[in-house]
Amino acid sequence: MIFTRRKKALAAAAGTAIFALTLAACSSDDPADESTDESTGGTTAEAEGDAEPVSLTVATFNTPGFSNSENDNDYQYDLIEEYMELNPHVTITYDRKAESGDARENFFTKLGPGGLADVEMVEVDWMPEVMQYSDLLTDLASADVEGRWVDYVEAGATDADGRLIGYGTDTGPQGVCYRASLFEEAGLPSSPDEVAALLDGDWDNFFAVGDDYVEGSGGKAFFDSASGIWQGMVNQLDVAFEDSDSGEIIVLDNDAVKANYDQLTAASETQSSHFGQWTEDWFAGLSNGAYATMLCPPWMLGVIEGNATDTTDWNLANVYPNGGGNWGGSWLTVPANGSNIEEATKLAAWLTAPEQQAKAFANAGTYPSQVDAYSDPAVTDAVNAYFNDAPIGEIFAEPARQWCPRPTRVSTTSRSTTPSTTRSPVLKMAPTTPRLPGTRQSPTSKQSANSRL
Amino acid sequence: MASTDLDRPAAGVTWRQRLSKWDVKASPYLYIAPFFVVFTIFGLFPIVYTAVISLMDWDTIRNSGEFIGLANFDFVLNDRKFWVSLRNTFSIFLLSSIPQLIIATFIAAMLDHHLKARTFWRMSVLVPYVVMPVAVALIFSQLFADEYGLINHWLGLVGIDAIPWHKEVIPSHIAIASMVNFRWIGYNALILLAAMQAIPRELYEAAAIDGAGKARRFFSVTLPQIRPTAIFVIITSTIGGLQIFDEPRMFDSAGNGGADQQWLTITMYMYNTGWGELNFGRASAIAWLLFLIIVVFGLINFWLTRRLISSEKSGS
User: Fold this and answer.
1) Residues of chain A neighbouring B137 (CB-CB closer than 8 A)
2) CATH code for the structural domain at A175-317
3) Which string of b and e fits A339-354 if b means at least 16 CB within 10 Å?
4) pLDDT digit string (tens) for B132-144?
5) ipTM
């Protein structure tokens, strides 16, 4: 795969905030059921002939893997070019912000008065906020795209009235990254399969392994940062911070949160490197062995590779403590006051079709959120050379498909104008955000203050 | 009526005369009008608008809001973050302003001597001021990293334990204050230097003839003479100090002022409430509270200044 060529791999949509959704059903997706997607690739081709020329603008952030202009190195595929070739009457202006935070600020500044691009990318971090203004975005639901995405991605962009306002691009299923040589030194098994077996279980088990590691390594830290682990833990709770019905802030009386907190802080004393995520020390720790494990969504692989180029023993285990996790993801939206809504919708549908997202994954490592992509060999056969040929396509497919956020209704206490019935994800976690020197890759938004707590 | 008649010249006043009279009376106002027009549009209007929004649950995207009285103020004043950010702001302000003014005065006094390549030295102290605050923050974040930072490395060489710059309150304030000082010392030194240059040299000569040593001359001649300028510098650095944003914002990547708001300042709190939470009603309330705090400080400054000046007058 082109991961070897890729110096900067990065997350299109790396968000820290994970969301819980209102999902009536979080049933399993049988990929065989979903086969309606072929049409979208084809519809565009017939549009030639006497179609009037239109120019569209697409605004994204980070590296969603759409266009060569995102990267110093050429991507294998340039989706923007490809679309223009397929649809000669369309001219696309591609604008990419370096960080999700910049895009967010721009989005909310212009959402009301107008001036947004025809297609705007929105990150999982600020999707809950966007959902409060879903009436200002085009309803993109259509038979062509029905069932294209895994449930939680589709539900995350569906408002209370059943309007689908975003087409999912990527998602953030997680595994555990670890340093094989450090595990070995600490007397723990070190092959990916062994580590997966070792960590298979709940958080108790994870921290028990951590204790073994600390002991075996002579007091070295097991995981990178308490805040990273905290996020992994708290995202698995049904309701963490707000009561999903009343919108009341219940975190202080939430025993489950307290239990997680106590468990984590107790373990952190010896097992954490005590670094904040995205700090200088944390980045240095990627290569100097200050910690041995990290919770890993697909886009994190690029962060690790980019900041620990000479480290050879990072590996990825197909396991996640206490079930699944999701960290990151984005949608393409079409603002309702745009001038080319129809063409913009076509473009957004095409860009988020499984075939195109498989290409974006090959370009930039953004893991598709489309069900059919998980059976696409371009995705399933992907390996990451830096991570000792970890079969990332395979590893992430299961958690991506099976991740099932607990049903949680959103409510926003801080904003009385929001209808209490709004069905949008609850922002559960204040995201962290790297804003870093050029060589660094900043996967997440700088807007970390989103938490309304 | 009679008196007004008397004031007027007896003979008929020509149009030209009347015009020139208006000219004298009205022209100054006309000349300063542009500033006040611009100020009304870009200064006064936002201030008033902010006050209106601070009383509303404001939705900036729909550009509408609901009047909720003082609820925003109530929330902010009962929010721990507000008081912590106030504490941090003052702490960073004191840790930066005091050493900054002392060092700046000292540097200015040194530059006031007859040095070789005077202009070079004087311009050099201004260089840090020219450097982008963000660039400064990047450099300092390398220096002040908790574990692998240069400063802790150096401290380790002389046997001092690593200082948790990003964990403890006071160390984080010291680190941020050092960034502020790095940037502003040279600037203030130049202003104070200009004031020192304006001191008549005869005073120093007279003092020297009276047998005053270097230190005595500095404290008894230089300092009293630069007092008005020093007050100006103090007032501007007070306002700047209370509005400090760049350095603490860049002190870590998240910009939340630390996990426990160790270095959250009041402007960061305001920014995060407004642009982070998109809650502009509450952010406006914070802005107004900050405004009131600065007004109070301005009044204290004013009072101190008057006292100082009057004591100077009565002294002489």
Assistant:
1) none
2) 3.40.190.10
3) ebeebbbbbbbbbbbb
4) 877 888 888 889 9
5) 0.73
